Structure formats: structure tokens, C-alpha cells
Amino acid sequence: MPVRLPLLAAAGLALTILTLAWLPGGLELSVTPVKGGAPLVVLPLEPGERFTLHYYHSVENAPIWEEHSTDKSGRIYIEEERYLKFGAGMGKMPGVGKMVTKGPYEAIVDMHQPTGDFVLRVGSRGVDHTILWRGTATNLSARAPHQAVQFEARPVSLLHKLMRRVLPHPATPQKGGTKITGE
Asked: Which of 169, 154, 167, 161 is nearest to 21 (CA)?
């Protein structure tokens, strides 16, 4: 009889771990150098949660915000673009979103345009490609100027999500980032 209790407890623990490993736990977005290496940024995301890529246009030197989201399978979408003025290469794409004014900014909203995983050539200081997420700002231009980086999202298990709460990935930004005007 005394041997049964530890076996039942072990079986219960194993069943709990297997269940947590099977249940969906959201997503993880990684930004990794295309040529290899450790991720520069790892963001835990919920389906539909937004993250923003902020930078200064290389020709106009005007601020631009690109809001992205992910669906439950990890597909990345661009949801909104916001900018101070029409710059080179900026403007409405026919049939995608609608133009609105947000304070001093022009914005294309309601885009929900799929990008999937994408590659970004990170600009130098001054362009300041920065990821804004949950009150944090991670400047990719300070970490990997002139490098191509891949944005890739993937579903993770509930077990993975819970483990990341206890032991966050070293590349996950922590609160206390720099606030950027126009967010």
C-alpha cells in the first residue's frame, strides 16, 4: 500500500506535465540575425497582441511606426502604419486599410495584411530600428546595425510559457525601456 501513493503521485505529475506540454500557451517571436547567432529579441505574445517597429525614414528623417500582430499559428500581420508626413515610399496602398489622422500623424489603420516571417535590414544609428513591446524599447540599430534579421513567430506550449515566466529568455526585454513619442 505505501508504494502505491508515490506511484500515483508520480503518475499524476507526469500527466500534468504532459497536459501542459500539449495545451497551447501563446506565441514566441524571435528576431535573429540571418547569418546565425543568438536571438537579439525574444517576445512572448498572445494571439492578436501587437508589437511595433519604430524607426526614422532614411530619406525624410521622419518617424514611422509599423504595428504588427500574430495569429494563433504564428503568422505575422502588419496592422497599422503611422508617420508624421508622407515620405519617400510611404502612403496608402489601394485596397489595404483606411487613411486616418492621429494627432499630427497620418495613419493607415485596419490593414491586417499578412507578412509572414520577414527579413529586415537593420539601419544604422539615426535610423534606430526599435521594437516597442509592453512598455519596453529594444533598439536593433544599437545591437545589429547593417545586419539582416529575421522576424519569426511560433506557437509554444503552456508548459513553455510557464517556464519562461520563471526563467525568461535572456533576449526578452524587461520593463523600464525608453518611451518613444508618438507611440
From this structure: 161
Cell of 92: 496608402
Q: What pLDDT was estimated at residue 10? A: 66
Q: List the grid coordinates of 64.
A: 514611422
Residue type, 87: G
Q: What is the mean pLDDT of residues 171-179?
A: 72
Q: How far is Cα 169 from Cα 163, in angstroms, rounded to an integer? A: 10
- Those residues whose C-beta lies under 8 Å from the C-beta of residue 146, and which sit 6 or more positions away, are 121, 122, 123, 124
| 116 Cα distance to chain centroid | 12
pTM here?
Answer: 0.82
Q: ∠ CA 25-144-164 to the nearest 5 degrees?
A: 20
One DSSP character per residue, 63-117 reads EEEEEEEE-TT--EEEEEEEESS--TT-SPPTTSSEEEEETTEEEEES--EE--S
Q: Which long-range contacts (CB under 8 A, 24 or more apart) does 45-49 make?
A: 45/70, 45/153, 47/71, 47/72
